[in-house]
DNA sequence: ACCTGAACACCGTTCAAGT
DNA sequence: ACCTGAACACCGTTCAAGT
């Protein structure tokens, strides 16, 4: 009981890591909108301006968040498996990591090329795509789509609501579903029939599997040297 | 010269349409961040609170923007073409509309099911997918991915910078490209080789074609009753 | 019906100053 | 090196009041 304690936790020195961790936790519990410089400072028991010694501005803090999340990605060893398998393994790993941090997945989307762990993931993804016969240009674009697909899968999952208690979540889903079901069945029969699926993804594994399959099959379909008649 | 004039244009009464149009224009010229209640009011020569008579809050204004943009989508007549063709036509139309409004495309992504024109597009898309043999659940998910893919194609186009003069844009691209090219060629050879493609999509038609193909081929690949061995 | 005035509770950020 | 105090220029939104 030496010195003074702050709030519930032992007061430690401010550091980039601590700020980033705090931001990730806060985003996870209350949503990314709750992550403000001032709120972060308050939770750390410090002045808002204290953060500016560690980060040039909020955008750099976001860079730090993305880097930290991407550092959770563990790349598999190089393999001789067919490229679709390798691609699936890479994307599944990224998917698993982002699923643990849906609130900040959108930050990652635009920041992969800005950090060491992101670059390693990108390099490996490009490797798989190049081995499938794509050019540097095509591989760049496809790797971007891959990232984009995984992030969308995580952030747009129907019924997902970060930083909302289960009761409010249920209510939100119920309301949205009701409004879809209230549509004219003559004009929007298919939309009404899909109301459940639009508001809550009933089966998570199937949802993510279809998303992954969709992308990988898409890559297969545009692969150079394929019979592409339609 | 009766009454008084404001700024450069003739002062007219405030209306939902005028506010939405103003917001879309502003987003296009200065970016979505520039679209604030206060700025909109200022441009219209009115108090910020005036807008609250027309829209409950900023989110409803965003709903209005999305609806207006989606109303530009002109649906093709029903056809007997094979479903991939029909899907391509629908997505190309949406793509063309969003390409004209990249700054607000992200707003559209989460609001298709909230307006008449969006619902009509969704219904048609679901129709095509259902005709391809997908269930209501699968079709809902795939239509979501379709939307998401088109929006991403428009908003993530490398080298696109909404609300930035060409000079600043060039400089921005140059800088980002240089930083990629400065990476270690031993550790990131493929990333360095793709630096150009990551920073500027050299060939727009090819970029959008590949994006569309990727999605449509993906749907083809996950279509029920296909030989799906990998 | 349509708009204003004043106020509230927030933001990110700068800059000079403290230890 | 690391943090604070005070201030600036913004936000969205509410509420009572005006015409």
Automatic annotation (TrEMBL), chains A, B:
Pfam families recorded: TetR_C_1, TetR_N
Keyword line: DNA-binding, Repressor, Transcription, Transcription regulation
Coiled coil ranges: none
Residues annotated as domain HTH tetR-type: 13-73
InterPro entries: Homeodomain-like_sf, HTH-type_TetR-like_transc_reg, HTH_TetR, Repressor_TetR_C, Tet_transcr_reg_TetR, Tet_transcr_reg_TetR-rel_C_sf
Segments of the chain annotated as binding DNA: 36-55
Protein name: TetR/AcrR family transcriptional regulator
């Amino acid at each position: 009981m030496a010195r003074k304690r702050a709030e519930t936790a032992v007061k430690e020195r401010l550091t980039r890591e601590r700020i980033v961790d705090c931001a990730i936790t806060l985003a996870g519990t209350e949503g990314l909108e709750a992550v403000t410089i001032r709120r972060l400072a308050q939770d750390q028991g410090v002045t808002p301006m204290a953060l500016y010694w560690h980060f040039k501005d909020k955008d750099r803090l976001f860079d730090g968040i993305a880097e930290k999340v991407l550092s959770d990605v563990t790349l598999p060893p190089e393999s001789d498996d067919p490229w679709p398998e390798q691609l699936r393994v890479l994307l599944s790993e990224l998917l698993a990591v982002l699923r643990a941090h849906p609130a900040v997945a959108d930050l990652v989307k635009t920041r992969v090329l800005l950090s060491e762990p992101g670059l390693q993931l990108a390099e490996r993804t490009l490797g798989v795509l190049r081995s499938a016969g794509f050019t540097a240009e095509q591989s760049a674009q496809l790797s971007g789509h891959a990232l984009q697909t995984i992030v969308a899968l995580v952030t747009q999952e129907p019924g997902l609501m970060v930083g909302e208690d289960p009761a409010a979540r249920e209510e939100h889903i119920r309301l949205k579903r009701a409004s879809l079901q209230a549509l004219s069945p003559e004009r929007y029969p298919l939309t009404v029939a899909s109301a459940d699926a639009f508001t809550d993804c009933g089966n998570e594994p199937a949802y993510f599997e279809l998303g992954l399959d969709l992308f990988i099959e898409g890559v297969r379909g545009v692969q150079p040297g394929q019979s592409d008649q339609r």
